[in-house]
What we know:
Elements: H1 8-30, E1 49-53, E2 57-63, E3 72-77, E4 80-87, E5 106-113, E6 124-128, E7 131-137
Antiparallel strand pairs: 1-2, 2-7, 3-4, 4-5, 6-7
Amino acid sequence: xxxxxxxxxxxxxxxxxxxxxxxxxxxxxxxxxxxxxxxxxxxxxxxxxxxxxxxxxxxxxxxxxxxxxxxxxxxxxxxxxxxxxxxxxxxxxxxxxxxxxxxxxxxxxxxxxxxxxxxxxxxxxxxxxxxxxxxxxxxxxxxxxxxxxxxx
Length: 152
């Protein structure tokens, strides 16, 4: 039986290397662009979007590539916005087989509570180059008003 001298500094470094290797593997599995398994990658939310406030209006820009604008519904009620629709992808054919399949088809729905009530009679919606843009003006009661102060 061989006797091996234990060196604590060597053991700490090997544990550190093992931990780095494990972490790199976990990160790669969750990010397909970093070498993980693309087949298991699914975006958490669809469509991806940005919402910003320009002082009078909320502007929503949602990425909806491949979605026919006729298949998108937008509903604004009080301070709630709902976007729903369906992306339909053409089938490749009876004799075709996929080498990679990352684009999904199907129905989607996202709903948000805006920080202020919106005037749903003045909402403007348009879709250009796969980007849905919504302009949601504040409701009158939510708009800023300058109040003149008078001497009493």
